[in-house]
Structures are given as C-alpha cells and as structure tokens.
Design goal:
Layout: H1 28-53, H2 62-85, H3 102-126, H4 135-138, H5 144-175, H6 181-194, H7 208-225, H8 229-246, H9 250-272
Length: 281
C-alpha cells in the first residue's frame, strides 16, 4: 500500500521592511487636470446650489459663502483622491499624512513662517497698498459671536487642511514627478495665490506675490520634512494671525482655535503611528 506523501506548507514570506514601499508617482499632468477639475467642479456645484435655493441675489450672504467654502474643500480633497486612485489605491501617507521628527518639522515650519513675514513686511514697504482680503467679512465674522466662530473654523481648520491636502499633498507632489523642487514650488505657489484672488480691480493683483510666496514656502517645508502636518500648522498659524488682525474680536477665536490646530498637528501623527516612508528613487 502506497503511503501518502506529506507536503509541507510553503514558508511564509517575510514582511516587507518599513520604508521599502515606494510612494506612487503621479504624473504632472494629473496635478494640472485635478486643479482644473477641482475649480470647475466647485464653480459648477456652487452655481447649481445657488440656482436650487434661489440665491441669485444673495450669493454674497455669509451663509452661502460658508457653504461654498465647504463645497470647495470637499471637491478639492475628493479630486485629489480620485486622480491619485488612477495610479494606485491611495493611502494617507501618500499625501504626506505621516510622522516626521518633531524638531525637524518645528524647525522648518518656524523658518518658513519667519521668512514669509520678513519678506512680506519688506514687500509692504516697497509696494504699499491699502487693499485687504475680505474673506473674514464674507464668511460672516462681523455677524455676531456665532458668525465669528464659524468664520474662524473655516479660516483656521477647513481651509488649511483641505488646501494643503490638495496643493501640497497631491498637486505639488504630482509636479515633482517632472519638475525640480523650485520649478514645482513656483508653479504650485502661483496657482495657490490665484485661487485666493478676489477680483476687486487691478490693484488687488498686488496681493498675489505674497500669497504665491507663501505657497512656495509651504512646498519647501513639505519637501524638507516629508510630512504635511508641519505645513498645515504653518497655514493655520498664518491664518490665525490674519484672522486676529482683520476680524473684530477675531483674536479671541484665534487664541482658542490656533493652538488647538497646532496641537493637533503634533499629536495626530503620533496617534496614527509611524507611517511608511518612500524608498529612495
């Protein structure tokens, strides 16, 4: 009688060491197409919403502006995830949502924000202008305590998170597949400044250079730290300072929300645990 042959189970494959998994390379054109789709989608959805609720003459009301801001945030993030999925199933760390050494992140973030304020101060002296962004007023910061808080949430939480996920986490990274760091950061900064343009006459174009510079510096800090959290912290800090200066009573909201966002930028990545790092190209 033939004895059954015992075939041993195949050995388990060793786990892939952390850091071996390569980050996806998103084509530069994906970034540009995602930008166009995101902006077009936002305008389309906001326009449809305005038509549905009959807000033709009320599109400047704070409630409508807040809704439009939320729509833009969702569309930008959704567009980034959609285009990223064309290459590989997206993960949080693909967009820079991962840990970085604390002092490295803090050092670059501090250097970036100080550099921006120094250059912006020099620019203000050389190119004096009385034009200010009316974002806080448009969002209803002057509509009582509730409006002040809601506007602060949009300015210090929604905008920094959504814009950084799209512009640095996806758009800049896609551009880096083709351009140098400087080239990608310049293009990213210019488009970042463009979406904040308020179309209030030719003089308002003078606000574009500082905004473009800020976008450029965000890219540099993201490049040097490999994490989006220091950049979100920079963005939120700058918006907190601007909100405190522009909105009546805004300093009280900034004093609460600003530190909360900065604390989240330190604690959240540590709660998520160590994220995979891309292998050298």
């Amino acid at each position: 009688m033939q004895m059954p042959i015992s075939i041993p189970d195949p050995p388990e494959l060793p786990e892939r060491p952390e850091g071996v998994e390569r980050a996806p390379r998103w084509p530069a054109l994906f970034g540009l197409w995602a930008f166009l789709v995101g902006i077009t989608g936002t305008l389309l959805l906001v326009g449809i919403g305005a038509a549905i609720i009959g807000a033709d003459g009320e599109s400047d009301k704070p409630e409508f502006v807040v809704l439009a801001t939320l729509v833009q945030a969702v569309v930008l993030v959704g567009t980034a995830v959609l285009f990223a999925s064309f290459v590989r199933k997206p993960k949080a760390w693909h967009f820079g949502l991962r840990r970085t050494p604390f002092w490295l992140g803090l050092g670059w973030a501090a250097a970036g924000i100080v550099a921006f304020y120094l250059v912006a101060a020099l620019y203000t002296v050389l190119v004096p202008t009385d034009i200010e962004q009316g974002v806080t007023e448009d969002l209803g910061a002057n509509e009582g305590t509730f409006g002040l808080v809601v506007a602060g949430l949009m300015v210090m939480i929604v905008a920094p998170v959504a814009e950084e996920l799209f512009f640095r986490g996806f758009f800049y990274k896609a551009l880096r597949s083709r351009f140098t760091m400087v080239g990608a950061a310049v293009l990213d900064g210019l488009l970042f400044g463009a979406i904040h343009y308020n179309f209030e006459g030719a003089d308002s174009l003078l606000l574009l250079p500082p905004l473009a510079l800020l976008g450029f510096l965000f890219c540099v800090v993201y490049e040097k730290t490999g994490s989006l959290f220091p950049v979100i912290g920079m963005h939120a800090f700058n918006n907190s300072v601007a909100y405190a200066a522009q909105a009546d009573g805004g300093w009280q909201v900034s004093l609460v929300l600003g530190p909360l966002v900065l604390a989240a930028c330190v604690l959240v990545p540590r709660m998520l645990g160590q994220r995979p790092r891309a292998a050298p190209a």
